[in-house]
Each structure stands twice: as structure tokens, then as C-alpha cells.
Design goal:
The protein is an alpha/beta fold. 41% of the residues lie in helices and 21% in strands. The strands form two sheets. A five-stranded mixed sheet has the order 3-2-1-4-5, with helices on both faces. A five-stranded mixed sheet has the order 8-7-6-9-10, with helices on both faces. α4 crosses α10. The structure holds 5'-O-[(R)-(carboxyoxy)(hydroxy)phosphoryl]adenosine and zinc ion.
């Protein structure tokens, strides 16, 4: 099966073409037009600006994907598109283009949840997943622990009560005067830390599987206000360690509670090297040992290949006129 996938939920316009055959994925093209440089100017995504950029970029990335994959539209078996969650006007651009292409080319259209797409970035590894599995999705807008009974049967068993982990990276970076997006900046600077600053680990010991990161943000703000000369790498490593500690502790608690057999990391924050290392370590330390999947770096942040992977496994297409954006679509 050949899948064309589109993703425009936030600030990346992306088109990918994948082959799915004999239960293995091959990514033939995964083209991304990033808006990061533009959003650096405002220190974050302005939805109206993002949507206009998608309008400019989406057809060129679709063309680039076809050129790179060396595939003609006739060869496409299905089209998959992110319909939510995300920014409503950004989502609309991808969905409208997908509807038009599906209508004109007479292809079935599959509506994909962005978060199930992040989890599906792991399917591109073509490795075995044993169920029940546990996914930790950490992105700019979401922090969720997802119990996966089988492909598509997902239940959120823990989530953030306020800021998402990525949002915490971005907001604390802003407090420190670093560029958007803050996550990569913080992880880059943290490498040079000599003596990481200790910050609170919110809800580390609470018996539930939920998260809260807004207190950490406030702690960083007070630290900045109360200390004239700060050594940025120490602060960055302190933030990174506090976030990773809470994420790992709750993942372990959930894995033990539900006796899961595979752990999956997903979302933009999965690009963080310290979190990747600790997540792998956590899987090894569980009894019985749990297998562990972490997406390739290029499939952590937003792109359409992951949407294609999720879309390839969906059973039923959605009638064209029923494909609607849902900015708050929950897993
Ligand atoms: O999944 P994603 O690309 O977009 C959403 O669906 O939100 O995630 C973006 C988030 C941003 O908050 C960004 O700061 C964070 O992922 N991120 C990182 C790293 N790379 C991206 N956070 C920590 N360390 C990184 N290396
Ligand atoms: Zn995302």
C-alpha cells in the first residue's frame, strides 16, 4: 500500500509518501517546511501567521514529496491527514488540501489523530510491539501516558493538569532569554553544566499518573529574579533533569501498575537526549524487563511520515464531506 500523508496541525507543513507492505514501513519521502524562523521573531506561534504559511507551503511540500519518492499520484492507495488536535486554522489548510486531492484523484481519505500519529512514529522502526504497551507522549501541547491494548485501542491514563512538558521547556527558555523553541536550546546548553541547579519535581510523589509543570516554570522565574549572575548551563540542566525525573517516575509507576510489555516514547520532547537515555534505562530497570521503542530523531517533532504510519493502519476511510477538523480531539 502507498500512502500520501499531510500534517499541518501547528507550525510545520509536511507531506510524506510511505510504502506499507508485509507489515513493514518504508518512508519514500518526508518533506517538511518549518516555520520556526518566523515564529522566533514573536517568541512563539501566532496561529494566524502559521495558517497563512501553511497555505503558502503545503502544495510545494506535496510536490516535493512526489518528486523525492519518484511516484505518480495514480500509485497512491490512500491519503491520510491530521484532523486534530491542533490549531484550528492550521489544521484546516491540510484538511482542505487532502479533501481536494482525495476528491480529484478518487482516493480514500483517512482522518488521523495527531497524537496517535506521534505514537505511530515508533511503527516506522518496524520493530515488534508486545501489548499491553505504554506510550509516553511529550509534545508542545500534550503530556500523556497512554495505555495501548492493541493498535488503535488507546486509553489515556495520565496527563498534565496545566502546562505540557514541551511548553515548560519553551516557557522556561523564554524566561532565560533563549530562542523559540526552547526545548532544543535548553538541551544544547545543558551539556555544558557543571553543577545543575535543583528545581522542584512537581507531583513526583503523588499516587496518580498525572503531571504538573507550571510550578517548575515559576521556580525558574524566581531563580532568575533572585540571582544576578546565573550560569545558564547549570539552570538548563536543572530544568531538563526535573522534567525528565517526573516523566520517568510516572512512566515507571504506570508500567508497573498495568504490567506493560513495551514502552514507547513519542512527541517533540522525545528528541531530548537526556530523556531518551533515561527512558531506555527505565525500561531496563523494570521487572520483568520491558522492550523499549524511541523514534528516530527526525520522527520526533512534527512531520507527516508519522501521520502516514497511523493512517496506513486505519481500517475505515471517512466519507469526504465528513472529514472535519477537531482542534480538541482527544485520543
Ligand atoms: O511534537 P512537537 O513537534 O509539536 C507539538 O505537537 O506540540 O513538539 C514540539 C515541542 C516543543 O515544545 C519543543 O521545545 C520540544 O518539542 N522539543 C524539545 C527538544 N526538541 C523539541 N524539548 C526538549 N529537548 C529537545 N531536544
Ligand atoms: Zn506534535
Amino acid at each position: 500500500m502507498i500512502v500520501l500523508a499531510l500534517e499541518t496541525s501547528c507550525d510545520e507543513s509536511s507531506a510524506a509518501i510511505l510504502r506499507y507492505a508485509n507489515k513493514k514501513f518504508t518512508v519514500l519521502a518526508n518533506c517538511v517546511a518549518s516555520q520556526i524562523e518566523l515564529h522566533k521573531i514573536t517568541g512563539g506561534v501566532v496561529p494566524e501567521v502559521a495558517a497563512r504559511e501553511h497555505v503558502k507551503n503545503i502544495l510545494p511540500v506535496v510536490e516535493a514529496a512526489f518528486a523525492e519518492a519518484k511516484i505518480k499520484p495514480e500509485k497512491i492507495d490512500r491519503i491520510a491527514v491530521t484532523t486534530g488536535p491542533g490549531l484550528i486554522t492550521s489544521l484546516m489548510v491540510g484538511v482542505q488540501v487532502a479533501q481536494v486531492l482525495a476528491g480529484v484523484w478518487k482516493k480514500p481519505l483517512f482522518s488521523v489523530n495527531h497524537l496517535s500519529g506521534h505514537l505511530a512514529a515508533n511503527f516506522l522502526l518496524n520493530k515488534k510491539i508486545t501489548y499491553p504497551a505504554l506510550g509516553l507522549i511529550v509534545s508542545g501541547g500534550h503530556t500523556e501516558l497512554v495505555l495501548m491494548k492493541k493498535i488503535g485501542a488507546y486509553k489515556v491514563i495520565g496527563s498534565t493538569r496545566d502546562d505540557a512538558a514541551g511548553e515548560c521547556f519553551d516557557k522556561t527558555a523564554k524566561i532565560l532569554g533563549l530562542a523559540y523553541p526552547g526545548g532544543p536550546e535548553i538541551s544544547r546548553l545543558a551539556v555544558a553544566a557543571k553543577n545543575p541547579v535543583w528545581f522542584p519535581r512537581p507531583m513526583l510523589d503523588s499516587p496518580d499518573l498525572d503531571f504538573s509543570f507550571s510550578g517548575l516554570k515559576t521556580a525558574v522565574l524566581y531563580y532568575k529574579q533572585n540571582n544576578k549572575a546565573i550560569f545558564l548551563p547549570n539552570v538548563c540542566a536543572g530544568i531538563e533533569q526535573a522534567i525528565a525525573d517526573v516523566l520517568i517516575a510516572k512512566t515507571k509507576r504506570a508500567a508497573e501498575k498495568y504490567q506493560v510489555k513495551t514502552l514507547l516514547l513519542a512527541g517533540g520532547v522525545a528528541a531530548n537526549p537526556e530523556l531518551r537515555r533515561q527512558f531506555l534505562q527505565a525500561a531496563k530497570s523494570l521487572i520483568p524487563k520491558t522492550s523499549c521503542l524511541i523514534p528516530d530523531l527526525k520522527y520526533c517533532t512534527d512531520q507527516a511520515a508519522m501521520i502516514g504510519a497511523a493512517g496506513a493502519l486505519l481500517k475505515k476511510p471517512t466519507p469526504l464531506h465528513k472529514v472535519l477538523v477537531d482542534p480538541n480531539w482527544e485520543l
